[in-house]
């Protein structure tokens, strides 16, 4: 029994040690990304909305450090310009329309986990991690006519404090995650990804004296990226 047990324990310890360290990598890739946002703001009290379209784009840096069995582990950071905002669905008979475009610099910090080909071929991946944002500017769009003048006092539940209200919190934070696939070729890596951002901070004040208890961005993003391997 001892003769069988000792090799078995040695094998288990060896496998555990291998699993902890993994197969080391030293791969750095840089490139750029672009895509399309569909955004809304999670208000409390609730404001009925449709998704607000916008553009996004920026730069990507990814460092691959290890491979655990078939799992490729990397860290990824981006610096992006992103258009967000909200588009109100006004159903009070006034024929008014309103949407606001908000512009941000966003910096996601991702754990990047991939499965598939490392050199040439297709790889599937998951991105997940925190995201910071810095508010840059915004623009309000009011829709009304002489026949149907602007009449915010007719809004459901009389919620109209958002009109003309300046963004009060310029620093944003939240969590983001995405799923995608990457085609690795001899001329670079081509990536397509779907991503979701859930804001944990509010753009307006949220004290008891403020009109909104919550006013956080949420965004669905479709994105394509192109990366070039700098080191392997």
Description of the structure:
The structure is a single chain. This protein is mainly β. The protein has a single domain, classed as Beta Barrel (Porin). The protein is built from one helix and nine strands, in the order αβββββββββ. Strands 1-3-4-5-6-7-8-9 form an eight-stranded antiparallel beta barrel. The longest helix has 20 residues, at 2-21.
Shape: elongated
**Which H/E pattern describes the elements?**
HEEEEEEEEE
Going by helix content, strand content and strand pairing, the class is mainly beta
Quantity of strands, as a count? 9
CATH topology tier name:
Porin
Question: Percent helix among the residues?
Answer: under 10%
CATH architecture: Beta Barrel
Q: Give, in spatial order, the strands making up the sheet with the most strands.
A: 1-3-4-5-6-7-8-9
Query: Low-confidence stretches at least 5 residues in length (pLDDT < 50)?
Result: none
Q: Regarding quaternary structure, how should these chains be classified?
A: single chain
Summarize this structure briefly.
The chain is mainly beta and 232 residues long.
Write the layout of secondary structure elements.
Blueprint: H1 2-21, E1 23-44, E2 49-50, E3 52-68, E4 71-88, E5 97-116, E6 121-143, E7 171-185, E8 188-199, E9 214-231
Antiparallel strand pairs: 1-3, 1-9, 2-4, 3-4, 4-5, 5-6, 6-7, 7-8, 8-9
């Amino acid at each position: 029994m001892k003769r069988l047990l000792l090799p078995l324990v040695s094998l288990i310890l060896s496998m555990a040690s291998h699993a902890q360290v993994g197969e080391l990598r030293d791969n750095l890739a840089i490139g750029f990304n672009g895509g399309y946002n569909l955004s809304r703001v999670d208000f409390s009290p609730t404001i009925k909305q449709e998704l607000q379209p916008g553009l996004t784009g920026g730069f990507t840096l990814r460092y691959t450090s290890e491979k655990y069995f078939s799992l490729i582990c990397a860290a990824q950071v981006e610096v992006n310009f992103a258009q967000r905002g909200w588009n109100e669905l006004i159903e009070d008979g006034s024929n008014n329309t309103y949407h606001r475009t908000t512009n941000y610099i966003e910096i996601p910090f991702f754990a990047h986990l991939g499965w598939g080909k490392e050199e040439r071929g297709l790889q599937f991946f998951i991105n997940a991690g925190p995201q910071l944002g810095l508010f840059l500017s915004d623009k309000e769009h009011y829709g009304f006519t002489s026949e149907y003048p602007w009449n915010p006092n007719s809004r459901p539940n009389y919620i109209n404090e958002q009109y003309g209200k300046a963004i009060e919190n310029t620093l944003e934070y939240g969590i983001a995650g995405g799923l995608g696939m990457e085609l690795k070729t001899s001329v670079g890596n081509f990536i397509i990804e779907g991503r979701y951002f859930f804001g944990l901070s509010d753009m307006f004040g949220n004290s008891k004296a403020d009109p909104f208890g919550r006013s956080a961005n949420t965004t669905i993003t479709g994105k394509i990226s192109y990366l070039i391997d700098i080191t392997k």
